[in-house]
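HUMAN: Can I see a protein plus its fold?

ASSISTANT:
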Amino acid sequence: MTTSPDASWGALLRGRNGLRSLALAGGVAVHAVNVFIATTILPSVVQDIGGLPWYAWNTTLFVAASIMGSSCAPLGIRWHGLRRTFLLALLMFMAGTVVCGLAPSMPWLLIGRMGQGLGGGMLLSLSYATVPLVFDPALWARAMALISGMWGVATLSGPAIGGLFAESGHWRWAFWAVLPVCALLGGLLVTQLGREGRDRSARLEAPLLRMGLLVVSVLVVSASSLYASWSVQFVGVTVGLLLVFWLARMDGRARQRFLPEGAWSLRHPLGRRYAMIGLMSIGVTTEVFVPYFLQILHGLTPLYAGYLSALMSAGWTLGALISSGREAVNIGRLLVLGPVFSAAALAGLYVFMPDPQAPPALLAALLLGVGGGVGLCWPHLLTGVFRAAPPDQQNIASAAITTLQLYAIALGASVAGMVANTAGFTEPGGWQGARQAAWAVYGVFAFAPALAIRLGWRARGDGV
């Protein structure tokens, strides 16, 4: 009689497994906490060192660099093994954090954010990729759940760290506070990980050129947002789209695909699901401006505004928990209901965010609704991707989800910056500029989940 392997939480959290779990969870935690810290303190940062026109670039560059970091992580594992690759990622993240903490001006801060994004993207990818290399298969599901749960921890701790330091007038210390945690994480990595995954004889391949085109397309759109001329902005968006079309053509002819077959066509079930993932992710990028709008238009403290802005992420998690156990007969409805909820909530923010008399409780409910709508359909979009992908390309399909989501967030932040700046975020700026920008951002971005409604309706009959 064979004994089934121990798949309990105790087996995952005891002894060396426990230390390894802490190391992998820590890799995601420092990345995720940093996301919420930066979002919370950014209004204080621009008041101190300036750079309001570059406001959205903090998210754009961070996420764009994360895309490149996450794509380089598998190469690092094969060439250097887990420990060295993890330590390299951690050192890049810490170097970027030091630059952010010392930044005398916005350009320096953006350089630091790129370093954080590159290292953080690697940490994020490495943490998930390491699970099958260091744990027994029976523990994989719990390990993944533990690592993913760090985003919930970040939702609670990130706004607290950023808000407390911003309110005390010492926003730089929000960056310094992360460094001791990184040092502890480095100690765990040195003692608990080795050369697992190293195989220099393996052929090293990655679609780095196509990844680069994604990043450049975002940067082109972001660069055009700094100009008031509509013609310059139109050219920037057009060039960005042409780069994506070029990427699609290259991918269709490549031996190692970036996206699986069918992903580039809205006529294919896989393409519809990828498009919905992108559109729903774009909708929540309005979170970038939430702390600024709440502080300038509604007079909320950085701590209070930080926690309200985190409600989008909390709603995403809550919606996913509510919908994940639904029967197959309800999945088609959720693929439509989710975008409807998000679009309606963004439309509500279009009406009430610019109104200084709007109750904070109402704004909180709307912010929760934006993320909740994404969560309602999210688990079923992901499982639909697995089912719709060709059997021999399911690994590519699953890996592309994170890349697509990061790209959508980076692109959304770029477009949000363009819309806000055009509407008056920087000129006239101040209270009036923030009000005009709030109208424009939420008015435009409500269309992203609204477009997903039609795709969700069509996806109901896909049978996947």
